[in-house]
Amino acid sequence: MAEAGTTHLPAVERGQTLHPRLWLVLGIAYICIGLVNLCLAALWRFYLGIALGFGLAKMGTSLCGMTLASRPPPPPARGCFGWAKNSGRRLLMWGAGKVQALFYMFRWVIYLYGAIVLLMVIIHVSSPDYRYSGFPLECPPDKQWGCSRIAESNPHGARHLQPLHLAASMPDVQAWVAAWVGEQSQARLLRDTRPGFLHARILTFFFGFADDFMASLRCNDQGQVVIEVQSQLRLGMSDMGVNGRRNEKFMLQLSQAVQQGALPAGRCEG
Known about the structure:
The chain is an alpha+beta fold.
């Protein structure tokens, strides 16, 4: 009986020491992956990735803290190898405790940031891209306070601006408009962009509310390109004048480009 007990105990001890080591390795991996994910997401301005990096690193510190706290204190060091092993363990316990304390200190900031990221995700899911068949005829009735239209028909919130008539070719003007969209922060041309019509999605700086920016290009009888624009929000009712200022900025910069010779003279044919 005694021999059976002695042969069984080492197996139990081996099983007990095996799992904490695996949890410790997993916790360290979570910390490393979370910090790398956090740094890359911050460089790419990927807000959801930043929150995921925080969560992974926090999970890793929790695993390391629980695993190291449950283990007995290290035995006295024997030789260089034992001293290095105990020093490494103490250093690991110290680092895990410091990171854990850092996350605990900023826990409310992390929780608030997580709530903001969740709101951003909800905003993004609630405003999918809509494929337009052409330049709208007017501002939507439910977006009168969040729409600006500079056009010959049904202008709205135009700030006394009129459509531009340019003596240039349509491909040159459309290329300039596409380049202007590319220079805007968090703006991207959508797939329904085609000759004579451009549709872009522009996100607001912080929460990422989506606005639709559309430009219409057509030729008049004098061989000029007529540029009309409409910019409107997707969610809500009011934009605090953001789309109106965007259209005004677009028209002003396009006029300056013509005056400075950035657009070559030509004739619109089509």
